[in-house]
Each structure stands twice: as C-alpha cells, then as structure tokens.
Write a structure and sequence with these properties.
Elements (H helix, E strand, L loop, with lengths): L1 H12 L3 H20 L2 H4 L16 H20 L6 H14 L5 E8 L5 E9 L2 E4 L7 E6 L1
Antiparallel strand pairs: 1-2, 1-4, 2-3
C-alpha cells in the first residue's frame, strides 16, 4: 500500500515527472554499462576527448543545467542501485546534450591517506559545477566535451 501511495504522490505532485523518469532510466543504463563494458570501449559515451566547453553561457542554459543536476541528484539518492560519481556525471551530460547545452566532464585521480588511488568524475556547465564538486583536490586526467 505504501508503494502505491508513493507512486500516486510522485505522479500528482512532481513537476519534473518526465525528467525524473529519464534520469532514472539513464542512471540504471550507465550503472550497468560501466560494470559490463571495458573502460576503453565505454569512453565513446564520454564525448570529445581533450576539449573543454566555454566558461560563458546563457542564463537560461545555466538554470536548465542546475535544474537537471538537482533532479539527477534527487533521483540518484532514491534509486536502489549504486550511483557513483561517474554514473551521475554521464547521466547529467546525456540530459544536457539532449537540450543542446555545452558542458565538460572531468575525470581526476588523487592518492588518499593510505596511498591508494581515488578516482572521481565531475561536470561543469559554464562557470558552474553541476555534479561532483569542483575537483580541486584531484589531478585532471581527462576532459570530455
């Protein structure tokens, strides 16, 4: 009964129904894709390597990007599968591309206190970081537009 109530509330009160459903499907797709496909082949979804988007964009595009980021974060915290930074970044990038908004996805690494490598992915649209923070503590090893 509780699940029916949650679905009802989602359908009645959520203004971003379609966007939430797209984000859920994309996050599931990328979660499976990253686990199944070798990283060399998975890079084709990352975009053009070594290229960055502009640091200036229209206010409308920036606000749309922030809204997409908010929806993806909300969806990824509620789904039963694991949505790590790369899954979130790829999901946001795909939604931004669909709306023809330029963005850059960064991949970075750093060593933690124990000397182990830690990888991270984050997305920037104009001057704003939409997922994964700004990656200030990570050494950038890949940029994709």
């Amino acid at each position: 009964m509780r699940i029916i109530r949650r679905i009802y509330n989602f359908m009645k009160y959520n203004k971003n129904k379609r966007l939430c459903i797209r984000a859920t499907i994309l996050s599931l797709y990328y979660n499976i894709y990253i686990k199944v496909v070798p990283m060399e082949k998975a890079k084709k979804h990352f975009g053009k390597a070594g290229v960055e988007s502009d640091y200036e964009d229209t206010t409308e595009n920036i606000l749309r990007g922030m809204r997409l980021s908010h929806v993806v974060d909300a969806v990824c915290t509620k789904v039963p599968w694991d949505c790590k930074c790369l899954v979130r970044a790829l999901t946001i990038r795909t939604l931004l591309k669909r709306d023809k908004i330029d963005s850059t996805m960064y991949l970075g690494i750093k060593r933690d206190e124990n000397g182990k490598l830690d990888a991270h992915a984050w997305v920037r649209c104009a001057k704003f970081y939409l997922s994964g923070g700004n990656g200030a503590t990570y050494a950038v090893v890949g940029k994709f537009m």
